[in-house]
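Q: How would the structure tokens look for this protein?
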Amino acid sequence: MTKPKILCMFSGGVDSSGVLHELVTNEKYKSHSLIIHHIHIWNRENRAMAELGAVKSILNYYKKEASFIFSQSTFDTRGFAVLKSNRFPMDMDVCAFTASQICAARPDVQYVAMGRTKTDVASGGENFNRRMQRAQAIFKSSLSLEQHKPAEYIFPVVNFTKREIWDFLPEDVRVATWWCRRPIYEEELAKPCGKCSTCQEMQEFKKI
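A: Here is the predicted structure in token form.
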């Protein structure tokens, strides 16, 4: 625990794969060792199994490039169905709280790496900024009673668009990423729905 760590919150999507690639290959992160954490987020979108398949494939690729600690946790809101609510906890809020608990347990974590992109900043508008501020407030408040210096958020791909990230990812990683919000399962094999916003965005990438 003497060498400072970077905690990478990893979903297996394009953005977080871009973050992981930067952490593994960019010289400016070489002085830190790496913890990768994946949250199995079970909700009505039912994408946890699809994301897990992507995570396994991508981490198998990067095992050849770097050593890291890999950990997992589960966040399950399927029991919220009886409430008949149109909302459920947002991914970035779940990630912020989970990251704070890892940082509380591991004082050697200096930075938490998240997948914020140039595209997010440009297209998300004020609503996206407020959501980011809320997530970071959750993170900071959860660590407010800790005696050690809290970790800081970093955004290794914030200067890249999603298209640029897609282009610089190795082919084996690119084809393994998962993006669909509402996967369709056929004999336990996940397929993109082709209709959600992220599917439509990725279809535009592939046309170019």
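The beta strands are 5-9, 33-42, 69-76, 109-113, 152-154, 184-186, 189-191.

The two ends are 45 Å apart (CA to CA).

Upvote if useful.
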